[in-house]
Amino acid sequence: MKSFFEGIRNTILSGIIFLLPVFAVIYILQKVWKGLTGFGAQLAGFLGIKSVAGLGAASLMTSIILLLLFYGCGLLVRFAMIGSIRNWIERNMLQYIPGYLKYKVKMEEKLLPPEDARQSVLVHLHDAWKPGLLISTDNGQATVFLPGTPDTDNGEVWVVEEKNLRLLQMSAKELKGSLQMSGRGLRI
After folding, report:
1. Which pLDDT does position 136 carry in this prediction?
2. I need a labelling partner for 63 at 20 to 30 A (CA). Which of 94, 142, 149, 150 fits?
């Protein structure tokens, strides 16, 4: 019974840690929205617009201003000095926002998915074979990443002898897809 309640507690804590960066972003956006709403209302009044397609002009103008702000910041990031400031802020944010780097990497992968050139392998460990991805080889030793299931972005890095590897005839993407489905479709 005690382990049941510990499982529930751990699941709730995991959910909090997962949602904390999302709430931080939403909170920041709310503050920015409130700050720009007055300016949007003034701009709508200056232009003489009361509503557009049933939407309040203040909300519409605030949305346009917010999108222009994001666009302008996107242009600024292209400059080296601004990029270094952003990198400095990110390095400092990592200390205070749990999971920030993980979510940043996942977002970047979704926006610009890189081609995974790692070779799929089977690794002989403790009288069993485990699917993994070959990172590098050197002097008869091989560095392999053994992804977890179903979250293939998490796993372990092992150094094994090259003789304990067997190449698979599938891409890294296919291997990850197979592992996400508990090994279904794994071509040995």
Report:
1. 92
2. 94
